Amino acid sequence: xxxxxxxxxxxxxxxxxxxxxxxxxxxxxxxxxxxxxxxxxxxxxxxxxxxxxxxxxxxxxxxxxxxxxxxxxxxxxxxxxxxxxxxxxxxxxxxxxxxxxxxxxxxxxxxxxxxxxxxxxxxxxxxxxxxxxxxxxxxxxxxxxxxxxxxxxxxxxxxxxxxxxxxxxxxxxxxxxxxxxxxxxxxxxxxxxxxxxxxxxxxxxxxxxxxxxxxxxxxxxxxxxxxxxxxxxxxxxxxxxxxxxxxxxxxxxxxxxxxxxxxxxxxxxxxxxxxxxxxxxxxxxxxxxxxxxxxxxxxxxxxxxxxxxxxxxxxxxxxxxxxxxxxxxxxxxxxxxxxxxxxxxxxxxxxxxxxxxxxxxxxxxxxxxxxxxxxxxxxxxxxxxxxx
Length: 388
What we know:
Blueprint: H1 13-20, H2 28-38, E1 43-47, H3 53-64, E2 73-76, H4 80-93, E3 101-104, H5 110-117, E4 122-125, H6 127-135, E5 146-149, H7 152-157, H8 161-168, E6 176-181, H9 186-195, E7 200-204, E8 213-219, H10 222-235, E9 240-244, H11 248-260, E10 265-268, H12 274-285, E11 291-294, E12 307-312, H13 321-326, E13 336-342, H14 347-357, E14 362-363, H15 377-387
Helix pairs in contact: 2-3, 3-4, 6-8, 11-15
């Protein structure tokens, strides 16, 4: 077992002390990347979900950034929620230096962001909104020394790379680029070839302990699905729970019907007000929200150790997202359970999940459960609202 300590990674004492209040020992990705980051090397880091990559790039960047010298680090991430989570890490561990961390993303006041950018040392944002700020000249990128692309594989998949390239045109020619992703696609390798100088390539294992993760599935009919989910949520001894659906429609349908059964449930998808989404994430991190029903927006970047159960109400359309979903549990040595409900319409997607990810998911016999009356009016109203 690697016995490397944070103080062995060339980090300064105040930062090590602050990190030590949250973590006992660095993860593999942190051990492998932090020294290279501090040496100003370009880094391509391939790390699976739960590997501790956010602290990996944050620690080295924080140590190098100096207060009151203008904007020196830019972090680009694919989603609003990830912006907030990454920014929280930077804020938490830069307290000893008094660094100002600004966040920029859509769905909130543009003018307030302009104000926060005036004295920002580090900026975390989504590509689209960052580019908007460059066009209005409310963000000044000429002092940037470090560019970080987090979840680069997701940004490539979502088509953000053209926007990122436009942003990079506003950056100084000599900067350090850190690229973190779960996988290395052709787009990522091409971007690295164009914009990175002799990058150090690093791979690390994930923090999720598969030996402590139980993966099971139930074969059900479509009409049984919600009743079984309700039964399991009521019977399983769980802490924090995420139920994954493929669409906003299904999220609202499932969460509202679960509420009718007396469960404390919260919906989470892009249609939910941004302030409410931020509040749900904060409360979930504090262990306040018991059950959150959401789309794949919740499958990346959520690092909460007390999530005990993951339910796949829908098998993901993209089989790779199964790994990101179940990666929310069995973290930091804790036990976890991933339960998939497989109806006829899910079978093709579920089969691809097993084939692509090479995972063993054990089939379980259906327990006895009460059939609940489902309010399909919720789904019809949702469709009508979207048509309007």
